[in-house]
Design brief:
heterodimer, A: mainly beta, OB fold (Dihydrolipoamide Acetyltransferase, E2P), 3-stranded antiparallel beta sheet, 1 helix, about 5% helix, globular, B: alpha+beta, Peroxisomal Thiolase, Chain A, domain 1, 10-stranded mixed beta sheet, two-stranded antiparallel ribbon, 13 helices, 13 strands
Chain lengths: ~150, ~400
């Protein structure tokens, strides 16, 4: 895992925040520290994603966020050509990947695949998390992006 | 399942109505007026006074509150009102099922199912969220430019195509069949606008693997239909479209956020389809004509597979223009033009078309169509589906 300068997509897209009830806040705080975390049940050990207030396996509410390796596998992908947001007018094409995390119960996370926007994307390819710091001051946040492991 | 425990053959759709269908933003009337018009047309079609409608069933967070509608009509009494949860078109058949449940439970005499959309007056579905902050589940997608329905669903379709070797030609066949059928339907917004293979192939890419013509339209208009009991339906103006079966719901953890449903490459019909067929006492081989909700062609692909019309690894052979074309294809599909080419009325126009097929009044009529099926809202949660029949096997 490493930090990278230069944002993949321009500023102006919605920035991430926890739900109105606070769910998910720990993930975004960890991302700012350049740590990838996944919700895990302390009672039964199950990982779950996205976050929820109880464990779907054992219904315990004793949940934590566990740091994971940041290594994953491309599960699906798409290349976006039509911009649906003003901030994306000059940003297409771009690639979104869905990444499976084998060391976190195979939960999935979406992010951009860094590098050539016209590259061939291979389902099953190994990727690693890259932390992308964006925004400033009170509006600073960090996205979790992905890069193919050579 | 005992016969008595189901709705099979006990209620019917007895009236349908729809406004002119417009391109998005082109309606001269506000949304609520469109809905009032569509309900009045459905009542006329059924041969009843609109004030006789005493139940209201809708879906997809329809903005037009039944209390306002019954007040505008001057109806004496409202006995039932109901909304199916979920924002997409997944509730289309479920709203019909809930209307059936209401008349069979003795709540209501006539329940109207309706949908109104004026995307010019209100927001567009195809646009991404414009808020400064994506809070909660949206935070895991929106900041990465994963914003619109097309972008959400392309990810599922890509995975299905990967797992089963499905090719772009399968998606193209769906789009071409719906456009072909719209050429016979003067109600269709795409009437007079043929789609050729070359036009599809050369059309701009929205998000791989979706070309422009894989995506539904955005429209203004309203549609309504009326449900009542078999007892009343027998003696009404129109030939009843008997409700033989309906199913609604969602498979295991399908709404897991950030694209985490354990079974991912699915339209969400795997647990519904067996329930649908069991209630009807039928199988896919009994279906004469299918209206399958197209938010995007890929959703139709998975819906058809999950309803047992073909094996997932056979889609490249089965998904052809010939097989999907009325009147004599193996599975005539979306015979009015559907969401892609008739009107994106959130799939309620598909139920109307299923009714027309059993009445024998479609502009792409399948000869002697008896069993007419609808699937509503693939890849969303919940989804629903419906089987109608001309002959309910009781009194002909």
């Amino acid at each position: 895992m490493s930090a990278e300068t230069g944002a993949y997509l321009p500023e102006g897209l919605p920035r991430p925040g926890p739900a109105i009830d606070g769910l998910g806040a720990e993930f975004w705080e960890a991302a700012k520290r350049h740590e990838l975390v996944v919700q895990q049940c302390r009672a039964c050990g199950a990982f779950q994603w996205g976050p929820e207030w109880i464990c779907y396996q054992c219904h315990s509410d004793d949940l934590t966020y566990t740091r994971v390796s940041g290594r994953g596998i491309i599960y699906s992908w798409e290349r976006v050509w039509h911009p649906v947001h003003p901030a994306l007018q000059e940003a297409t094409p771009y690639i979104v990947v869905l990444v499976e995390l084998p060391d976190a119960g195979n939960v999935r996370m979406a992010g951009n695949l860094l590098g050539d926007r016209t590259q061939d994307v291979v389902i099953g390819a190994e990727v690693e998390a890259v932390f992308e710091d964006k925004g400033e001051g009170d509006e600073a946040y960090t996205l979790v992006q992905w890069r193919v492991v050579e | 399942m005992s016969e008595d425990a189901t709705m099979r053959g006990k209620a019917a759709i007895v009236g349908i109505g729809e406004t002119t269908y417009y391109k998005r933003g082109q309606s001269p009337d506000p949304e609520v007026k469109l809905v009032l018009d569509a309900i009045q047309l459905a009542a006329e079609d059924a041969g009843i006074d609109v004030r006789e409608i005493d139940g209201f069933a809708a879906y997809a967070n329809d903005r037009n509150d039944p209390s306002r509608l019954m007040t505008a009509f001057g109806s004496k009494d409202m006995t039932f009102n109901n909304m199916v949860w979920g924002g997409g078109g997944g509730g289309g058949s479920a709203a019909v099922a809930n209307a059936v449940a209401a008349v069979l439970a003795g709540y209501s005499k006539y329940v109207v199912v309706y949908r109104g959309l004026a995307q010019g007056q209100f927001g567009r579905f195809g646009q991404g969220p414009q808020a400064a902050v994506a809070a909660g589940p949206g935070a895991f997608t929106a900041p990465y430019g994963l914003l619109s329905p097309a972008q959400s669903f392309a990810m599922r379709i890509r995975r299905f195509m990967h797992e089963h070797g499905a090719e772009q030609s399968a998606l193209r066949a769906i789009s071409m069949a719906t456009y072909r059928h719209a050429q016979s339907n003067p109600r269709a917004v795409m009437y007079g606008r043929e789609l050729t293979e070359e036009m599809y192939d050369n059309s701009r890419m929205i998000v791989e693997p979706f070309h422009l013509f894989d995506c539904c339209q955005e429209n203004d208009g309203a549609a309504a239909l009326i449900v009542t009991t078999a007892e009343r339906a027998r003696d009404m103006k129109q030939k009843p479209a008997w409700v033989m079966s309906a199913a609604q719901g969602s498979d295991y953890r399908q709404a897991a956020t950030a694209h985490n449903s354990p079974d991912y490459a699915t339209s969400n019909f795997k647990t519904l389809a067996p329930r649908l067929y069991a209630m009807a006492g039928m199988g896919p081989e009994d279906v004469d004509v299918l209206q399958s909700y197209e938010n995007f062609t890929g959703g139709v692909l998975m819906s058809i597979v999950e309803h047992g019309f073909c094996e997932p690894d056979e889609v490249n052979d089965f998904f052809t223009l010939e097989n999907f074309s009325a009147p004599d294809g193996k599975l005539p599909l979306n015979t009015s033009g559907g969401n892609l080419a008739e009107c994106y009325m959130h799939g309620l126009e598909l139920v109307h078309e299923a009714v027309r097929q059993v009445r024998g009044e479609s502009t792409c009529q399948v000869p002697d169509a008896n069993v007419s099926m609808v699937t509503s809202g693939p890849m969303v949660q919940p989804v629903s589906d419906l089987i109608l029949a001309a002959d309910r096997g009781v009194d002909g």
